[in-house]
Amino acid sequence: MGLWQRLKSLFTGDHFTEDLWNEWEDQLIEGDLGYNNAKTIIEQLRKRSKENRWKDQEQVRQELVEIISDMAQRVSLDFPGETPHLLLVLGVNGVGKTTNLAKLARLYKEQGKRVVLAAGDTFRAAAIEQLSVWGERLGVRVVSQNSGADPAAVIYDALVSAQSRREDIVLADTAGRLHNKVNLVNELAKVDKVIRSKISPDSYRKLLVIDTVTGQNAVEQAEVFHRSVGLDAVLLSKWDASARGGAVLSIAQKLGVGVAFVGVGEKITDLETFDPRKFAQAVIGT
Ligand SMILES: Nc1nc2c(ncn2[C@@H]2O[C@H](COP(=O)(O)OP(=O)(O)O)[C@@H](O)[C@H]2O)c(=O)[nH]1
Ligand SMILES: [Mg+2]
Question: Are residues 62 and 120 in the same domain?
Answer without folding.
Answer: no
